[in-house]
Amino acid sequence: MKIGIDASRANLEQKTGTEWYSYKLIQEFKKIADPQDQFFLYSKDKLKYGLEKLPDNFVSVVLSWFPKFMWTQLRLSINQLFNKPDVLFVPAHTIPIIHAKPTVLTVHDVGFERMTELYSTKNIGPKGWKKRLIYVFVKIITLGKYGSNELDYHRWSMRYALKNAAKIIVPSKFTKDEIVNIFKVEPKKIKVIMHGVDIERYYPIEDRGETKKVLHKYMISDPFVLYIGRLEEKKNTQGLVSAFALMKKKYQLPHKLVLVGSPGFGFDKVRNEILNSGLSREIIMTGYVDGQDIVYLVNGADVFVLPSYYEGFGLPVIEAMACGTPVITSLRASLPEVAGNAAILVNPSDYDELSEAMNNVISNQKLRQRMVSLGYERIKMFNWANCATETLKEIKETVL
Description:
Helices cover 43% and strands 14% of the residues. The protein is α/β, with parallel strands linked by helices. It has two domains: 2-196 and 384-397, Rossmann fold (3-Layer(aba) Sandwich); 208-381, Glycogen Phosphorylase B (Rossmann fold). Helix 8 (237-251) runs parallel beside helix 9 (267-277). The longest helix is centred in the N-terminal third of the chain and has 16 residues, at 17-32.
């Protein structure tokens, strides 16, 4: 069997949830693949970061594309037109217009349908005539129904993908229910396969000296509250800043707030909230942190907080648990399903509740110990090897 895989996201240097998901699945596929099957990894550039180490039945297919935009819809489509595999797997919800039949995809979340105000409506692409070209192209292929902004692209690509996919993989029951309710997709077409936790990247570190060295690199001193994710409205980063300011004012704790991640849509509100809080020196924005350092930041934190309005899964929650760091997260969307009883769940819109939760975790040693134990138990549910095995099974069954 010839199995094509879109490896473009896995091959990115700065990976977040979807990119790590793609990367981990491909690496696990290499371990479990039937030698009789052939795997074709499609990417924009030469494979790297370990992806380039291929078994004999894996082939790298570099699809160079000078324009640097619309790679999936144009360049990957051209490849599929002339070199269709038996099945195509896309580990995200954007599939090429021309694609193998069957095609299997992963839908991570549909937040852009529930919370449209949290997504940009500015046209995407490079400046000048190229941006105009993308706009015209999108208008043509969508028969005038959609523009070339981020929100419209999400909405069009999701509908096209769901209509044309043979199988849809989702990381949570919540996301499955959302797809069924919003898009009226047959439930039997959707398979829930939970993500794994990467215990090679996230684990408890006993050596406090090494941890402090890495913290010093980012000008972080103990103690601190940690957040990891894009700094944006969807993830309620500005709400976390507000709650942190309330906690500092009420309890006079010495903690700093460390925000790890790149700016996203609504970052201006996050920045303004920091300035208005009067705590600019107490709030550290590190930008993106690579995989070698991130484990030390998670280990060094007194508590990890992810107060998102919407998540399809929320990988950082279980990654923090794997490091033995107590977790506070939102009671919305998929997060209660993922966190179970191993985290404190709060209303993300109630900053008082969030500030009290942070203070309780920081101040109550018995509560912290119980949360750490529950976290270690919880992460046993999440295994990348199992995720890859189930996913590959679903991919192959669409052909058999």
